Every structure is written in C-alpha cells, then in structure tokens.
Amino acid sequence: MSTSFPAEKIDTAIIHRRGLQEQIRMLTEDCNWSERVGQKIDVFWLRTDRGSFFGYSYEYFLDCNNVRLIYWYDNPGGVGTPVDFMIEDLEDESMWVVAKTKHLKTRRSTSICLRRVPTENKSIGGPTHPHLYPTPYRR
C-alpha cells in the first residue's frame, strides 16, 4: 500500500480549476496514506446538460486530517481517469452523500477517529463545480 496519496491520478487541470493545490500538497506530503482508516461510502449518478456522471464518495480518517474525496467518472465502473474531483471536510454535511447514515462520522465505531486530528489542520475547501450542482440521484 502506498504511503502517499495517489495525486497522479487526478488531472492537474482539475486541481487548478478547483483550487485544490494546497489540499493535494497536504494529502501527498503531510499524510501517511497507508495508515488511512475509511472506505467508499456512496455511489451515485448525476445527469446534467454535459452528460451523465457517476460519483464515488470516500471518507477517510488520516493522521493529518479527516477528508471526504469525491471522484467523478463518465462511466459507471469508476475506471479510468476521473473527469472531476472534489475534497470536502469530513465533518461537514455533503450533498454528495445521499444516505446520511453512511457518513463515517455518524458511525459509532469510527467516530472516535474524529478526535484524533487537531482542528488547526482542517483546511479543506475549493470552489464547487457549477455543472455538478444538481441534486444527485441514487443509481
């Protein structure tokens, strides 16, 4: 298992468009990716005027931060290169997680991990892609 976040899978144009440079730097340089705790928590489908997209939400507790990573693909298998990518703070609600009980922060067995990371390291954000704002539909 890799010790750093696989940033090479994300197109640099997406990183720049969303303003994720600092968050990607933090994930690749400050976090031990091999010791992450978490998993894929939701898969959903979204139809826009640009086409159909399939979103995959992952939530992780890391030694440097707690994050939700959302990968967008133009195919249902979630293979190939993501067409978009988002990073959210795990403690924030997300419109990209349809079944709220799937949030790792609401699971008793994993909620203790939220207390492990100092709050001064929590700086996740980035503008939201305007074409991906509609309400997601469960597949």
Descriptive account of the structure:
The structure is a single chain. With 139 residues, this protein is an alpha+beta fold. The chain has one domain (7-132). Helices cover 15% and strands 27% of the residues. It is built from three helices and four strands, in the order ααββββα. The chain has helices spanning 12-18, 21-30, 108-111; strands at residues 37-48, 51-61, 66-73, 84-89. A four-stranded antiparallel beta sheet has the order 1-2-3-4. A hairpin with a 4-residue loop joins strand 2 and strand 3.
Which keywords apply here?
139 residues; 3 helices; alpha+beta; 4-stranded antiparallel beta sheet; 15% helix; single chain
Topology diagram in text:
Elements: H1 12-18, H2 21-30, E1 37-48, E2 51-61, E3 66-73, E4 84-89, H3 108-111
Antiparallel strand pairs: 1-2, 2-3, 3-4
Helix content: 10-25%
Structural class of the helix and strand makeup? Answer: alpha+beta
Largest sheet geometry: 4 strands, antiparallel
Number of helical segments with 4 or more residues:
3
Q: Residue-averaged pLDDT, rounded?
A: 78
Q: What distance lies between the first and last C-alpha atoms, to the nearest angstrom? A: 30 Å
> How many separate domains make up the residues?
1
Percent range for β-strand residues: 25-35%
Per DSSP E runs of 2 or more residues, the count of β-strands stands at: 4
- In the sheet with the most strands, the strands line up as 1-2-3-4
